[in-house]
From TrEMBL:
GO MF: FMN binding; riboflavin reductase (NADPH) activity
Superkingdom, taxonomy of origin: Bacteria
Entries under SUPFAM superfamilies matching the protein: FMN-binding split barrel
GO biological process: pyrimidine nucleobase catabolic process
Name of this chain's protein: Flavin reductase (DIM6/NTAB) family NADH-FMN oxidoreductase RutF
InterPro entries reported for this sequence: Flavin_Rdtase-like_dom, NADH-dep_flavin_reductase, Split_barrel_FMN-bd
Pfam families: Flavin_Reduct
Alphabetical UniProt keywords: Oxidoreductase
The organism of origin for this protein: Microlunatus antarcticus
Domain Flavin reductase like: 29-173
Taxonomic lineage: Bacteria, Bacillati, Actinomycetota, Actinomycetes, Propionibacteriales
Keyword Oxidoreductase: yes
PANTHER family named in the record: FLAVIN REDUCTASE (PTHR30466), FMN REDUCTASE (NADH) RUTF (PTHR30466:SF1)
Length: 180
């Protein structure tokens, strides 16, 4: 059933037809929960990583995923040349790890437990799962890049771990307590 735009249940923003500003747009996505991952790779022989809440499944056949990264971030400088990477899907117990990999100007790997795959990419110990992939495409979108990745291998390290979710500027865990 269609509702009249003048109905009090319709928001003032919907009635005004004004363009959506950056702050309002960010506010929408603060209310949209997202899984938390850390993207890791190697640049010039050194491990590099950053926290991402933009990871999406694109296709199962072929297995493709994507994520976005701000072109002004230090993470983008690393990803601009990376051929392969690992997406580490975090558990609720890894809040500190997520915060560390979201902090600029520190050695994010200094106090992190990780191991190197035979192909050279770092994997974070304790993640719920990880996917190693080949970067297929870097598409400029606004001031960010959408990075498309072909999944090459994966491992589900922890079957029963509660996933880490970011919602409204805070971390949450999903589990039996949150099932509706």
């Amino acid at each position: 059933m269609s509702v009249d735009v003048n109905d009090p249940a319709v928001s003032a923003a919907a009635r005004s037809g004004d363009a959506l500003g950056a702050d309002a747009f960010k506010g929408v996505f603060r209310r949209h929960p997202a899984g938390v991952a850390v993207i890791t790779t190697v640049v010039d022989g050194k491990p590099v990583g950053f926290t991402a809440t933009s990871v999406i499944s694109v296709s199962a056949d072929p297995p493709l995923l994507a994520f976005s990264v701000d072109s002004a971030s230090s993470a983008w400088r690393a990803l601009a040349s990376a051929e392969t990477l690992v997406v580490n899907f975090l558990t609720a117990a890894q809040v500190e790890l997520s915060a560390r990999f979201a902090t600029s100007g520190i050695d994010r790997f200094a106090t992190t437990d990780w191991f190197e795959l035979p192909t050279g990419e770092p994997v974070l110990v304790g993640s719920a799962a990880w996917v190693r992939g080949e970067v297929l495409q870097r598409t400029p979108v606004g001031r960010s890049f959408l990075v498309s990745v072909l999944a090459l291998e994966s491992d589900v390290a922890t079957d029963d771990a509660s996933p880490l979710v970011y919602h409204d500027r805070s971390y949450h865990g999903i589990g039996d307590h949150s099932v509706l």
